[in-house]
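Hi V.,

You were right to ask for the full record rather than a summary. Here it is.
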Amino acid sequence: MQSTVIPKSVCEKLDSRMRRFWWGARDTSARPLCLRSWDKIFTPKSVRGLGLRRSYDINRALLAKWSWDLISGNSSLCFSMLRGKYLRDKTFISVSAFPSDSLFWKAILALLRTRVATLLNPDGSWNLPKLHAVFSQADCVLIQSMHRPRLAGADRWI
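Predicted structure:
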């Protein structure tokens, strides 16, 4: 789950299985008695929910963690190998995917492209209100100090 983009339909099936397990449904034909709304179960504990997370969100968060560790300069062996194979002398934000790259690398890049593009203005500068809405003050300072790629062409899904 942390190294592959799982399609939304598969994530929904995983959530369905989790729901059936949670409500104690042993027979697939019988409908279990649901004592609480599933949306309430996915609500964070801080707002009186049970704190379970949707598979789709977990999958995206785990892939985003890889991106963040590459950007922030994690020096573990795994990240050193990724930098050596895919980045060489480029920055993580400016690198593009090639057809021969692994599905894992393409997934990280695709997630980065879709998320970073929402935080940039059309001229390529950071959209500060959106940046501060998503990140803490300390993270905003770090993000603003990073090199931004020049935007070539329209934003698109990879």
